[in-house]
Write the structure tokens for this entry.
Amino acid sequence: MNEIFLSPYNPLSTEQTIYKLWEDSGFFNPDVCIEKGLTAVDADYFSIVLPPPNVTGTLHMGSAYMLALEDIMVRYNRMLGKKTLWIPGTDHAAIATQSKVEKIIQKAEGVNRHDLGREAFLGRVEKFAQESHDTIVDQMKKMGCSLDWSREAFTLDEKRNLAVRTVFKKMYDDGIIYRGHRIVNWDPKGQTTISDDEIVYQEEKTKLYYLTYGPFTIATARPETKFGDKYVVMHPDDTRYTQYSHGEQISLEWISGPITATIIKDESIDMEFGTGVMTITPWHSVVDFEMAERHNLDKEQIIDKYGKLLPIAGEFAGMKIADARKGILEKLKSKGLLTKEEDYVHNIATAERTGGIIEPQIMNQWFIHVNKEFPYPHDNMPHVQKGEMVTLKKLMLSVVENNDIEIIPDRFEKVYTHWIGNLRDWCISRQIWYGHQIPVWYKGDEIYCDVTPPTEPGWEQDADTLDTWFSSGLWSFSTLGWPNTGNSVKGKTGPENDFANYHPTTVLETGYDIIFFWVARMILMSTYTVGQVPFQHVYLHGLVRDTQGRKISKSLGNNIDPVDMIEKYGADAVRMALVIGTGPGNDSKMSEDKLKAYKHFANKIWNITRFVLSNTDNSPLQKQEVPLTDTDQTLLAEFKTLIADIKQDMDTYRFYLAGEKLYGYIWHRFADVIIEESKAKLPDPATAVSTQYMLRYILEKSLVLLHTFMPFIT
RNA sequence: GGGAGAUUAGCUCAGUUGGUAGAGCAACUCGUUUACACCGAGAAGGUCAGAGGUUCGAGUCCUCUAUCUCCCACCA
């Protein structure tokens, strides 16, 4: 017996050297496993792409949970003999990373990105991203992740950029991507558009002001936007206003003087709210914009992109809207137009990353058309025929409704389909610098879109970059060699054949909080671009919260660094604590008590091993069958039943159960009962050999089973 | 406004198709037996939120109620 077993288990001193051994072995690379005869060339495959962590700093416990779950799946399938690929990578996270670096340089040097200029600023961002990347990779290795580092990817590297440009061009040619003046979510603070999903609503207590608008009374929470309102809208069935007809013009006195207003009848009006009459501001409200589109009404800009009032506001022009409100109210009051005000609670839209208050604006931006019909060009989707007229929405719905993709837990299928139902065109252009620049060039009125720039002089590239989720959406296939997959052959080894061998990926394992951001976008991109689902199963994990059940956030300062926990309790204990007791889709709380318990378990395993080795080391134990006592036969049969049970749990994604059963068996059955009873049987020549065989068998198999959960100690 | 989830031992949470309630931590008693005190043995602790229903049998299925959490939409 190795004398290492004489002292308690020390994870810190062993984990790093063990990870090194794994890396040197090359077994995380499926090609090496095939070369060395560990995996059959024609074996089934199992593949996962790692949800790439944002290069905005360090990993948190939530990422550690994700890594633990995925490594468990990957090691399990690799041990089953499947060709197993787990691709590592990181995400440039465009706006998140840019705003983080902007904050850093603002604080440290008092400069903003415009002071530095595009090129110099991007240099800073790249340096920051590189440092974050290195930290994150180190953290992933400390967690014991069996990722194939030879295939590492970055959402903004050259290969992924080629994939982005290729998809953009294809969508542009198909009319799926279009440029147009449409209402978008403008963040005056970040000076960029953001998508609907990047909006965070915050409750605000304010006033609802009632204003006299000719013969009507209208209510508004934002008097500063009302300068240009020249349409007054009511429900066609509202009996209070039957004397007014659609299109009728009336003259009235408004904020800056007399105006002519037009009556509009629209069924979207809620007769119950306020007076049942409202004026509209199509340039700065999504709902009003849609109404204006329906009736072909004029739209006028009131607020500029810095959040300041335009000349239409008369003496208030140039003022920030928040500053102007008071003066505007006074003016309304003095003109006798303000009749009533009451307390009002509503939600205001803010930008997730900058906290800026969103001001809807009509702008010329790039969009992905989710409702445009086109003939489906691929012929390998089980429930969509080649040539069938589809939309991106239909594709996204079809694969989940037909179970081409299984979502675990299944209640999220409803969440997903409901979200698709409400989906609007996706605004993909961003006025930030860090990201994939849009592959479109302009010369006067001419537009040129291609994978490569135009060769003639005089063309200028669109300055905007793409929403970070555009490149993330391609992740399942951009990491597998696409678009250079022309010679990709199933059954042949090497990265050039990855697409044929490993796509669709087997499982996407990620947090339920990014089902819309990412899961849906990957489904959109993959079914459209390569005619395959991106993954066959989606396993959604919950959030890891702090001991008080709060969300981990920077402002609360309650982030636990997994590396600190690994140093204190060992990576194996961290993995067990994260995985056990938490089913898919459920949030969990991280407590040090739980970590301590699994560190003790690691030590228990250590001592079990020490006992078994010291009692079987010098025995003539061979691989061949040993005549077993009835007792030992029963014990082994019981153990084999457990293995079958655990295998079933593993196959049905119930890792939390499998881990708990292993824990319970090893500690409270094997150690507390079987080993205790063996102490009487070992010295007896009649039972010694059988007992030794039985102990050794259970120990070795237990370690194998436990390896997926606790790879280092086992 | 729409939807989802939770409510089980003092605390944190498991409990897969309905069949005698489980784990970790904490607390209690005993034990320092040559794998382990990062241990073992034992005992204690729950009308499984409440009410009704289905069933031979319900924490598990159905209905309603209460409380909490989250997601989506966002009304001038």
Q: What stands out?
A: Residues 205 and 345 of chain A are 5 Å apart (CA to CA). The mean pLDDT of chain A is 92. The domain at 591-707 of chain A is CATH 1.10.730.10 (Isoleucyl-tRNA Synthetase; Domain 1). The first strand of chain A starts at residue 45 and ends at 49.
